[in-house]
Amino acid sequence: MAATTDFVLPPVTLRIGGEARNTGVGIHHHVNPVTGRPDAQIPLAGAADVDDAVNAAHEAFALWKATPAGTRSRALLKLAQLVEEHTRDFVELAIADNGTARSTAQATVSAAVEWIRYYAGWADKLPLGRITSVAGAGGSFGHTLRQPYGVIGAIITWNAPLMSLSMKVPAALAAGNTMVVKPSELTPFSAMLFADLVTAAGIPEGVLNIVPGGAEAGAALVEHKLVKKVTFTGGPETARKITTACAQTFKPVLLELGGKSANLVFADADLEAAAMHATFMAFGIMSGQACALPTRLLVQDSIYNAFVASVGALASSFKVGNPQEADTICGPVINEAAIDRIDSMVSRAQEQGAHLITGGQRLAGDLAGGFFYPPTVLADVDPASELAQKEVFGPVLAITRFSDEAEAVALANSTDYGLSGYVWTGDARRAIRLAEALETGEVVVNGAPNAVAERPFGGIGHSGNGNEGGLEGLEEFFWTKSVAYGNG
Ligand code: NAD
């Protein structure tokens, strides 16, 4: 299958200060997930490269912190404008990075622009502190100061690189920090254009440094003495290692991890809208490879059979194929290892009693060379089984029935994760009760959009801690100093 248009992949380099370095400690062969064939060589940063990048960020910190807030704001606004102007390039880069379908890639660039613009707006309206005491008889005047940390180390994963960059970089820079970002070696392309546009926006050299690499570079970044805070998006095993490394020096760490988010559909909901939302969100956004997707569908008894049938029919109607084609809804998954993981989880789910409604087998024919797995719906999934409890990170939806609200809440809260909760109901009182009862970082009712810039996004439990988005996302990048003035 022809994988790409005539778009030319940018060379991947390590961006350190003003330098573009094209060698590191090794090479990763990028594989095009549409064809399954290698298409680029990616230099991998090593510990020495990371050290240089952190030093460059450290040197740039004094200047960036002292840069007038209005100037920082205008630079970030310019960045948002440039990203928007390069929408077509970022769409091609997302397709090249990991095979994101064109329609999703387009929406992702628009969302990224909104996130950059949102934090540009905060840069000169920062909540700098508050008065803590007022000088009076024998008292002292006191206030807090919000201080940027210095160098922030950011490690991101492969599923949505531009989105991850836009959720982390503008907030950290708006607050006056500088950064070293380590994109996944699997998906380095979008970060190259992002780095170019940061420079074009007038943000000084060294404020943002990008070091594509693997675990070695990530570990070196986390452990570096001059990195004052770590922000990580990825899986729980890596998060555990990062948290352990940070614990050695009590370094704060923000963790945006995975989920097994429940979608509760009650009989009183708008069922047509709920079925479309449940299906599109499970499969139509990066082929199920996104953290906050509703991958567990809990459906009330009285509508269960009809609802499962609707979701199955919709899922099997989604076009899976070349992400370049405008009507493709599901592109490939990231690599062969993902296909193996997904396929074996689907097999084990059936061994554990789940019923396959659609999908369940790697696609052959024209798509055989790439990493294509169809939307896969499994019904009657045992809530205690692996499929109900563990993230698949692929196009697999697990459906379980419930009888009443109390059972739905108990099922929803029965995993170690706590990222997103989705509710479909026509009863406003129920929606309010569930917003309170679900143990998740966000609750989304009746198809409201999620991951929008002005709302905090983050998880609890095995889904992580801390927030991106909203004022909370900005506050992650300050530490608070308390100041008091005596009378002496
Ligand atoms: P991963 O944890 O394997 O890798 C993530 C990043 O960590 C990569 O850049 C990798 O090179 C780096 N890394 C690996 N070992 C490291 C080490 N020892 N020290 C430092 N860095 C290291 O990620 P994955 O499991 O492939 O990513 C998918 C996961 O990411 C899923 O669980 C998904 O839900 C989650 N995710 C979460 C969010 C969110 O915002 N909550 C968004 C997207 C993805």
Task: Describe this entry's structure for a reader.
The structure is a single chain. This protein has helices spanning 47-66, 69-85, 87-98, 102-123, 161-174, 189-200, 215-223, 236-247, 271-284, 304-317, 336-351, 386-389, 405-412, 428-437, 470-475, and strands at residues 14-16, 19-21, 26-32, 37-44, 131-133, 141-148, 151-155, 178-182, 208-210, 227-233, 253-256, 262-265, 296-300, 355-358, 376-379, 396-402, 420-424, 442-445, 464-465, 478-485. The longest helix has 22 residues, at 102-123. The model has no long low-confidence stretch (mean pLDDT 96). It has 488 residues and is an alpha/beta fold. Strand 8 (178-182), helix 6 (189-200) and strand 9 form a beta-alpha-beta unit. The protein is 39% helix and 20% strand. The protein is globular, with a radius of gyration of 23 Å. Helix 4 runs parallel beside helix 5 (161-174). Strands 14-15-16-13-12-17-18 form a seven-stranded mixed sheet, with helices on both faces. A six-stranded mixed sheet has the order 9-8-7-10-11-19, sandwiched between helices. A three-stranded antiparallel sheet has the order 5-6-20, with no helix packed on it. It has two domains: 14-257 and 463-483, Aldehyde Dehydrogenase, Chain A, domain 1; 262-452, Aldehyde Dehydrogenase, Chain A, domain 2 (3-Layer(aba) Sandwich).
